[in-house]
């Protein structure tokens, strides 16, 4: 007990030191980059300046090359707390738009991924014919394909959340297929033989054995898939000229040189990703616990 | 004592009476370096209602022979019939129950639900399932653990659960691969007696792999002594002991004489090597 306590104190301390070091580096880098810009502007307009002034002003520029954490924090606070959630100026409004298409794309991608995996595991022809396409699909750069998907779907009057969700699906089905194929094939040989002695049919083999053997692999894949779905949703918001979503927020931020807004959106998407992966992790724990696998 | 050699026991059996018939069966595992002759020229007839034990040193092919009967392994040459049909038909008809050397319980199912598995697969009614499970968990002494998961049980308890799972199906033919190997002496005695009771009451056919001479003597009507490299049957001994057995039988002269005969058969073979 004593040792455990001192250990947590120790790691807590180490984490604090690392974070502090990062913050110091960040502020120094911001001073360097923003300061240079300030000096350049001042010299261009031939105004006198002192280093003290530069240091004082480096952290207060409206569109700094590198915003510092407290500026981002203020921006996050203002755009979350000080705006009604239905407002286009609210960061939460954009986050929810991205979250919706992420979740829809993730759900579609997971189901598609599982179905492809089941097909591949149960059917030799599908294994030979589908697997190369599955792999090839991921070698196409998503940034190239996203506008095409959006335009093609738009031309047949599919707009809104669905094209974005399709791109999320496109990115997220792949890890699910790969993990699930491995998982479905991971069933213990002895368990397979036991089922053979019962003359279990392939459906029983699947629902009573393979599906359960695959679950640990499935959850590992789902964690990758949900972050891929988030990336897909954000990327899909870039070329669509979307009015909402974290991607649109990033794009408009860079269009107007609003670096603080960009960083706030970046932090928000990181938090969203962390939140989504944590949720999958909790679902995993809950399900594995219910089936008695957590000791 | 009635020591039959494999050819004598291989009399042409009235097909209604024989449960397992093996003729000139060989099985070779192809390995990278040299092929392994796991079974060589096996001849054996097991009649309905027999309790047959396979005994022999490790690696002599006991498990392999059991697996051939269960259609889990295919013979390289020779013939085998199980219940008058091919092993594969016997398996498809769910004619036998198999207890593996390891418990092979599903970790995501409780003990009760593990025992229910074979009955779920053969779509038996829920009430029947529960009655069977209660009966056989009680028999192996696990009634208080039915809602536990396998990892909450000791190795020996897991093995007992796997025995209960096989018994629940009440198959005509029970194939058991060292089912009691992991158990303590007392539990083993208890389960030996219980198994004998079931066998006497139901007239099932039992094929039983063991490393223990006393266990083989206590349980069997026939003892098949096997030898490795290549795996073969050196002797089939028909037990002179009565079919109805009790633990006290172990103190009789007949018991010791039979044990000695088995020990000698095992030792003789060792000298040949
Ligand atoms: N799948 C396999 N592939 C190759 N060789 C095998 C395979 N299974 C068994 N063997 C070999 O066949 C021989 C017989 O093995 P088997 O498992 O039947 O022995 P056993 O009598 O059951 O031994 P034990 O008492 O240790 O369980 C051994 O030499 C083993 O190495
Ligand atoms: Mg064995």
TrEMBL record, chain A:
Keyword Transmembrane helix attached: yes
GO-annotated cellular components: plasma membrane
Annotated localization: Cell membrane
SUPFAM superfamilies noted in UniProt: MetI-like (SSF161098)
Record-given protein name: ABC transporter permease
Entry keyword Transmembrane: yes
Lineage of source species: Bacteria, Pseudomonadati, Pseudomonadota, Gammaproteobacteria, Oceanospirillales
Main location: membrane
GO biological process: transmembrane transport
Pfam families noted in UniProt: BPD_transp_1 (PF00528)
Keywords for this protein: Cell membrane, Membrane, Transmembrane, Transmembrane helix, Transport
Coiled coil: none
Transmembrane segments: 12-33, 91-121, 133-153, 217-240, 260-282
InterPro entries given in the database record: MetI-like, MetI-like_sf
Family: Belongs to the binding-protein-dependent transport system permease family.
All copies of domain ABC transmembrane type-1, residue ranges: 91-284
Organism this protein belongs to: Nitrincola tibetensis
Membrane topology: Multi-pass membrane protein
Domain of life, source organism: Bacteria
Automatic annotation (TrEMBL), chain B:
Top-level taxonomic group: Bacteria
Molecular-function GO term, any one: ATP binding
Keyword Nucleotide-binding attached: yes
Domain annotation ABC transporter: ranges: 20-253
CDD domains registered for this protein in UniProt: ABC_NrtD_SsuB_transporters
Keyword terms of this UniProt record: ATP-binding, Nucleotide-binding, Transport
InterPro entries membership: AAA+_ATPase (IPR003593), ABC_transporter-like_ATP-bd (IPR003439), ABC_transporter-like_CS (IPR017871), ABC_transporter_ATP-bind (IPR050166), P-loop_NTPase (IPR027417)
Similarity section: Belongs to the ABC transporter superfamily.
Protein name: ABC transporter ATP-binding protein
